[in-house]
Amino acid sequence: MAENWLVLDALGAAGEVGEALRKAVQGEAASRGVSCRFVTIPSSGLPSCRGCFSCWTKTPGQCRLADDGLGLSASIAASTAVVLLTPVVLGGHAPGLRLSMERAVLPNLLPYFSKIDGRSRHPNRYPSPPALYGIGLTVERDPESAGLFCSLVARNASNMRSPRHGAGVVCRAEGEAGAAAVVKSVLGDGVRPDARPLSIVALLGSPKPRGGVSASLANHVQAWLTGHGAVVRPFSLAAARQDEEAFGAMAEALGEADGAYLSFPVYADAIPGAAVEVLERLCAYRREIAPDGAQGFFAVANCGFPEPANCEAPLAMCRLFARQADFAWLGGVGVGGGGLYEGRPLSSFGFLSAAARRALEAKAALLVSPMPPDLAQTGDILIPCPLPDRVYQWMADRGWQKALGGKDGIRDALARPYAVPGASS
Ligand SMILES: Cc1cc2nc3c(=O)[nH]c(=O)nc-3n(C[C@H](O)[C@H](O)[C@H](O)COP(=O)(O)O)c2cc1C
């Protein structure tokens, strides 16, 4: 099939930036010699799907409603790529576009189930489903709705069994140049205009001077990313807190990076205060000096208690940081029983660290993927301590006991230096 793009244009009267998006899509198609047909989707869309499944059972492959929906299904089946141009509404497509896609896409799928990457899907009715690209327009910059929009397009693509997908969002303030840049990056299949390797910033949030567990976890991510062609630049939040120059270098590197991650210990149920102080300053810095482009961000929390639920609140804080600092949130990894991994590379723990390594690598993969992640990939992954609670507790107690032994004998773990004399014990 000769390459041909079907553009479902739900932008309506979207002003200069909307016009720039249309022009940029036409320009991209022309530059590749691809034919490109625009279909205007009215704000009311097609009459809603009735959920009767006739397109699978009574008239297989065709909707029973005899209207423009039939032509839309045919056009999608005959295209090599579908490009959605839409305002972003509640993080998703404009309702008119949703209505039209609900009507047009279902008939092009088969009713049967099949498993793809662990998730149930319907096979496509046709042997070569089109690629799917989504380009959204927002009034203001809003990384959370942009992230949601991109992940919805990824999920649509997986439902349609599209061989490739891409998505991006431009806001009105970014103007015509912003519109052209987003179209280029989305339709370019993530192929980067220059040949430089991906640049990722690793933020280390443990106040420990020599790394600790957070550094072990971060190092594992760094090794994986380096093995996949990225260049990783680590920065310590503790150092940035002490030194203005170090803060500036870190903030600048973050602005130019393609993505970032943060690894930190849980302190008193949250991100350590020293790290929060620097993260807050980073938010302010990035409000003044916006990053060069869209950037993904994930966080790794580790806690001393064996239950990874202790990482939930700190990871939720990281999600807020991502929103306020204009990163696309890729989710977090919460590692319970952090003490187990103290002092050695993560891989040296063999099967005991296998689940943690898998989770870290899954998040790292999102940073280097040219395609936006599906929503299911951006949730938090909680990894419990792999040892039975009693064993972990016994090891921890033994560790404290050993540390209590000074050269003058065992110190009193139960000492009460602030006990009020005469108060009942
Ligand atoms: C001041 C302080 C507060 C802590 N609070 C918690 C906590 O609330 N919950 C928890 O599970 N672990 C807590 N921990 C344990 C650390 O999260 C744990 O030791 C972690 O593995 C340290 O990581 P690091 O080596 O990267 O610094 C705390 C540790 C310190 C020093």
Automatic annotation (TrEMBL):
All copies of domain NADPH-dependent FMN reductase-like, residue ranges: 199-284
Q: Which SUPFAM superfamilies does the record associate with it?
A: Flavoproteins
Instruction: List, alphabetically, the Gene3D superfamilies matched.
Output: 3.40.50.360
GO molecular function of the protein, one example? oxidoreductase activity
What Pfam families does the entry give?
Answer: FMN_red (PF03358)
InterPro entries of this UniProt entry? Flavoprotein-like_sf, FMN_Rdtase-like_dom, ISF_SsuE-like
Q: Which UniProt keywords apply?
A: Flavoprotein, FMN
PANTHER family linked to this entry: IRON-SULFUR FLAVOPROTEIN (PTHR43278:SF2), NAD(P)H-DEPENDENT FMN-CONTAINING OXIDOREDUCTASE YWQN-RELATED (PTHR43278)
Protein's name according to its UniProt entry: NADPH-dependent FMN reductase
Species whose genome carries this gene: Solidesulfovibrio carbinolicus
